[in-house]
Amino acid sequence: MNSASNITNADLHCHSNVSDGLLTPAEVVRRACANGVDLLALTDHDELAGVAEARATASELGMRYVDGVEISVSWGKDTTVHVVALGIDPAHAQLVAGLQQVRSGRDQRAQMMAAELEKVGIRGAYEGALRFVGNPALVGRAHFARYIVESGHARDVKTVFDYWLAKGKPGYVAHVWATLAQAIGWIHAAGGMAVMAHPGRYRISNKELRQLLDEFKQLGGEGVEVVSGTHSADQIREFANIARSYGFFASRGSDFHGPGESWIDLGRMSALPDGLTPIWERL
Ligand code: AMP
Ligand code: MN
Ligand code: MN
Ligand code: MN
Asked: Sign of torsion, CA 267 269 272 278?
């Protein structure tokens, strides 16, 4: 990345309607630019179909941009974690094939989720969720949540997760994603850097979090999201300390999914704490 030191508002984690966001890739890039973002990465779940449009739009606007993707990973006994890939070659065969494999189970999982939801009185959720996704292969919990809100069972998406879709709730179906080693391997093969996404969101003990980060480091993971739209001020301090002690590069991302449906808008997060090496200095 040229002139990385000039970057004051990097947002390296967000979604378009290619996965479970609400805006097109071009709309995401325009909104980021309007919000003052000066380096953006589009990081849809397990899919690269939006990055060409995002890159072209950023180039029209004269905004700096890197290609990204957020990979779903199964870790330990039954924990799902997310790894953000930054600066990857979106045409790299190994990465493309790996992501295709990760996506392949989503349809069957969605059918199982719908069967479970039916048992608690929510009907037609498979067909309903599919109406909210562009590519049916990418159907996920956010699309179910939108259908459940639309059909009047809940007032907003967050409530749907609390009652039905979070781990342990009736519509939650465990799923096997990529392994941590696979995800990092694909990212490195495609010339990118691997970042542990929103570590503050995983419902695991401190000991398990340490194990996760140890393993991630050992496998060559380079970065950790210190500032995330989903992190509290305390969590930002906690993960800044972790970045320093592990020698991780620090990343910053909103995890924006759409207006009215996100923790925070594009580029509106707090700054990285001092004493960290921003990952954009290495991209
Ligand atoms: P999936 O990959 O299908 O398991 O869906 C995960 C997605 O669900 C995340 O990327 C978020 O977009 C969304 N999500 C997960 N937990 C919540 C929550 N508590 N509130 C709102 N959205 C959530
Ligand atoms: Mn999402
Ligand atoms: Mn995530
Ligand atoms: Mn995300």
From this structure: negative
